[in-house]
Design goal:
This protein has a domain of about 150 residues. Helix content is about 55%, strand content about 5%. One of its GO terms (biological process) is porphyrin-containing compound biosynthetic process.
């Protein structure tokens, strides 16, 4: 137990040093493996186990035993099918293979922009949610009952899963910091994601630009509130913000509709003492100068782009991770995979402000060669010393 505690303290210090702007003893590893990966890796039925989560601990044990990371690799899912079924969800539906899928839907009609702008919260509660969740499309009394059942199911699973991962964190000596504490969205992404849909929002910014801009500004306070973790302010907390739409819109639209409210979100959270962890989805290379303007030590997990340029432009101010292509773990030899890890370390590690991670989450067990994955993680743990 003493050795495990010492290991946990050492791992925790790696992240503290990075977040405090110091060069750590070695590059920390923050690789989370998805619930779907974990279940498939343990050779269990994906659909069945998501309905019977009491048996997940033995599945997560296999991850902890077989993959070297500094944070707990076992991640519970926020998309538990039970509460979605109780709500009659249209936005997240389990496929026949057991994966939770997100169809392209919208919950806000174009003629309801003014109503939304006047009171985003009320419009969400009264119009949007009953459309997305069909069991809420009923009288106020029944709606309250459905909401209460779904809310309890969600929190029962979340608390149970949290206790389970905490046991594994202590058992295997993982750092309690470095992961995600809470999630919010960039205001424009929130409008695009489920309110208007990706397709509709791209048309709206041409046909109704003033209404889109007003709606994005109106919803920003809700996104800020959603991004405040439950714990007191800390340099070691983390608000996760996945960034969706920016690479798919024109530069002038990004500058007008996306950037101001997104920057306000990150700035406001930082001012309250809550750093943000951005998943910089797709290719943001044309927006690097914007990202530089975010509060110092904002954490940025990159999917695509040129790591050398990102390190040069952002690496002295912000904390970088990502870039390593998980596709190589499937197609490459073990040595090629290790060589790629060395390349990423050589580019991104100098001076600190780097956390090792892949370019995206690993969703299925057959999307990678698990032996390559193990070899890469072992190499980083043993060779990424400063």
């Amino acid at each position: 137990m003493t050795d495990v505690k010492a290991l946990q303290q050492e791992r925790t210090q790696l992240f503290k040093d990075v977040y405090d702007g110091k060069v750590p003893k070695r590059v920390p590893i923050n690789v989370g493996l998805t619930l779907e990966f974990a279940i498939q890796y343990a050779d269990k039925d994906l659909a069945e186990l998501q309905w019977n989560t009491a048996n997940l601990e033995e599945v997560f044990e296999k991850l902890c035993q077989n993959f070297i990371t500094d944070t707990n690799p076992a991640g519970i899912s926020l998309r538990n099918p039970l509460h979605y079924q109780l709500l009659g969800a249209r936005n997240f539906i389990m496929s026949s293979s057991g994966f939770m899928q997100h169809p392209e839907i919208h919950g806000l009609e174009v003629d309801e922009y003014d109503e939304f702008i006047a009171s985003p919260y009320n419009c969400l509660m009264e119009k949007v949610l009953p459309r997305i969740y069909t069991e809420l499309n009923t009288n106020p009394v029944q709606r309250s009952v459905v909401f209460a059942k779904a809310f309890k199911a969600y929190w029962d699973e979340l608390i149970s899963g949290g206790m389970m991962t905490q046991r594994l964190t202590d058992k295997y000596g993982y750092s309690p910091i470095g992961g995600i504490d809470i999630l919010t969205e960039a205001p424009f992404d929130f409008m695009a994601d489920q309110l208007r849909g990706f397709k509709n929002i791209t048309g709206d910014i041409r046909r109704y630009p003033d209404k889109v801009l007003a709606a994005v500004e109106a919803v920003t306070p809700l996104m800020i509130k959603a991004g405040i973790p439950p714990q007191p302010p800390s340099n070691y907390s983390s608000t996760f913000i996945p960034l969706h739409m920016a690479p798919f819109i024109r530069d002038k639209d990004f500058e007008k509709f996306y950037w101001p409210s997104f920057k306000k979100l990150v700035d406001e959270l930082a001012a309250m003492g809550y750093p943000s962890m951005l998943f910089v989805e797709h290719d943001w290379m044309r927006y690097l100068d914007y990202l530089y303007e975010l509060p110092e030590n904002t954490r940025m997990w990159f999917e695509y782009g040129d790591p050398k340029i990102v390190k040069e432009k952002l690496g002295k101010k912000h904390i970088i991770s990502g870039f390593y292509p998980i596709t190589l773990l499937k197609t490459g030899t073990k040595q090629e995979c290790i060589d790629k890890a060395k390349e990423m370390i050589d580019i991104l590690a100098p001076g600190g402000k780097y956390v090792f991670n892949f370019d995206k989450g690993i969703i299925t067990a057959d999307s990678v060669n698990t032996e390559n994955l193990q070899a890469v993680l072992q190499y980083v743990a043993e060779n990424a010393n400063y």
